[in-house]
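Trying the structure run again after the queue cleared.
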Amino acid sequence: RGERVRLVTRSGSGPDHPGIERRAADASDAAQLAALAAGAATIFNCANPPYPKWDSAWPALSSGVIAASETSGARLVTMSNLYGYAADSSPMRATDELAPPTRKGAIRAATWHDALAAHEAGRIEMTEVRASDFIGPGVGANGHVGDRFVPRVLAGKNVSVLGRADVPHSWSYVDDVVATLVAVAHDDRALGRAWHVPTGAPLTAAQLADEFATVADVVPVKVKTIPAALLKVAGLVSPMMRELPEMLYQFERPFVIDATDTTETFGIVPTPLVEQLRATIASYRSPGRETAPVRHVAA
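Done. Tokens:
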């Protein structure tokens, strides 16, 4: 859009772009963040601490961005997820009551309620965007459809996933996530409520792997599931793995998003699946990305 962006991370890292000024800061430091937000129109809170740090990091982070929004007058747009909704509530709608079934869901619900209370008190202007698991270029090691999934499909190797491979799941494309964030930041109709990212029809993990293989023109692979018992054993030595079992409900039963009201209000529609897959595959086949030789499907 030609607007100036100040990107704040702990390390000061980020893309090299003439419209982006990178700054290193701790977003839980309210005074520091408020100074960095001076003159800004919008604060996009896209932070997401590692799971093991959620209990300690989120309260300070949430209060820091709310305080910075109040001090600077910048509108607060938070990038969030679906953890706050009750289990077995698919299709989930942005107007559904929050009833988190997990500790991590309760933490994210608390950040929502804190920001909404500040909005209703007239201290800030806020809105929130919620997406399902990401798909697309740049998802990387932290995404279920990232470094542990796509390169293996491209290399003709079997894939292992959490939960079950045969239940429908919504996958939100990163470009559609960005489009929604930008739309709500510039529209007063978005204020005081949450919005879901317009997301394509749900796919099982097995279906998604087949779609990737078809678009990439490679041999289809098998999709296996990681036994829950193995996660528990891994959790004995890995703090991150220890956090996963409580999230398995999202991959053992349908986990589907409904964003009809976002499309009707802002005119955003999901990017066609084939375009999502082509862009993702191209990112993994780009120079500097290592994948095994491609095995083409016989005509």
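The mean pLDDT is 93. Worth checking whether this holds up in the mutant runs.
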